[in-house]
């Protein structure tokens, strides 16, 4: 992830499902900001994708990120 | 989970109990978005379903997702 | 837990202490929704009830569920 | 903890420090509701009190409980 | 930590950075309330200060405590 | 991190992406406040940067810090 790449212009998404996708992106970008070597990240993938405990921890990160995104989008309730 | 499937049109549910079910679905969909191989997910099931520590971690993910859903539904208090 | 059982008609409780009990129920119901075999759940009980790390993780789930319930009940402050 | 004991009549405390104490009590009561044998709880104490990882996890439970209590007390800002 | 010591008169701080320091103090006081022996706490320090997993868990406790403090201080936005 | 360094004058950032960067800084500063030896921190880096479970836990800390920052910035919705 080049430091100049604008990947998060806004927290606003059209739908909750797009909000879920953004939450996953946000979590992944944090991992990329800590482990900046894409090749290493690729090699490490099976360590978490095939490990239920780490899949559950990953789901927890996404749940927290989504909580923030849902609030930013006023829960997509389309209220004024 | 095909990428085009609309599974989360809204966070609004009729009852708290439906909100619980949606929270579990949201957590499961995240796992499916990370480990996209349904066969692998099926084989891994006993690893968490028979492991109390992972059952507890799973319950934590659901609690966070439900927190978001409950807020979106104004706690089903039926206030205007 | 039969799927048709209505166990969560509302998040509203009379007192904070009832809210604590509901939070524990909500956490337990999630475990039951993931590990649906009551006999297995019964056998697994010592694994977490006699393990301090898992007791602490369980307390964390209850704390998150209670946070949602307390908010739903406006912290039982009896304000209009 | 006898089931009839009223230990949480309210979330309101006079000061933040009393709020901290209540948060610790709430976390401990949850442990007591899951592991109901006081003798077992006493024997298990060194397992977490002498284990930094479990002390940190316990601090996390208290932080979440306190977050709820602080909100209930409007952060003791004494605003109307 | 003598039980009569008033260490948390308020959650209000002048700046976010003071809020961070208070969050760390609050987390440490919880550890002190559970493991009351200062000598033991001192001996245990390397166990977490030299262990990345426990440093990360500690950072999580501080992040939750800070979330509460930031809200109490209305995010230091100096709005009326 | 010298104790007199002002690194967190405010939680306000221009964009969500700057908010992400601040969240990572806040998490790192907490680690630095607990493990104050920069040389040790540098040596420990591979322990978490090459460990998927610790990368995921780190992402969780950042998600919680970002939740606070996003709220402080009113989700960058530019509403009055």
Describe the 3D structure:
Chain A is mostly helical. The first copy, chain A, has one domain (16-76). Helices cover 65% and strands 0% of the residues of chain A. Chain A has three helices and no strands. The A-F interface holds A 6-12, 26-27, 29-31, 33-35, 40, 44, 47-48, 51, 53-54, 57-58, 60-61, 64-65, 67-68, 71-72 and F 15-17, 20, 24, 48-50, 52-53, 55-60, 62-64, 66-67, 70-71, 75-77.
Can you summarize this structure?
Chains A, B, C, D, E, F: Pfam families: HTHP. Six copies of one chain form a homohexamer. Helix content of chain A is 65%, strand content 0%.
SSE layout:
The structure is a homohexamer of 80-residue chains.
Chain A: H1 16-34, H2 38-49, H3 52-72
Runs of chain A with pLDDT <50, length 5+? none
For the secondary structure, the number of strands of chain A is: 0
* Residue share in helix of chain A: 55-70%
Q: Largest interface, per-chain counts?
A: A-B, 26 and 32 residues
User: Which H/E pattern describes the elements of chain A?
Assistant: HHH
Secondary structure category of chain A: mainly alpha
- Domains of chain A (count): 1
- Mean of residue pLDDT values of chain A: 94
Quaternary organisation of the protein chains: homohexamer
Q: Ends of chain A: how far apart?
A: 36 Å
Largest sheet of chain A: none
Strand proportion of chain A:
under 5%
What general form of chain A does the structure show? flat
Number of helices of chain A: 3
Radius of gyration of CA atoms of chain A, rounded to a whole number:
14 Å
């Amino acid at each position: 992830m080049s430091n100049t790449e604008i990947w998060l212009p806004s927290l606003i998404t059209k739908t909750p499902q797009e909000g879920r996708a953004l939450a996953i992106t946000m979590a992944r970008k944090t991992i990329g900001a800590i482990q900046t070597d894409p090749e290493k990240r690729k090699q490490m993938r099976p360590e978490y994708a095939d490990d239920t405990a780490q899949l559950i921890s990953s789901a927890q990160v996404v749940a927290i990120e989504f909580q923030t995104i849902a609030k930013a989008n006023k829960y997509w309730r389309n209220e004024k």
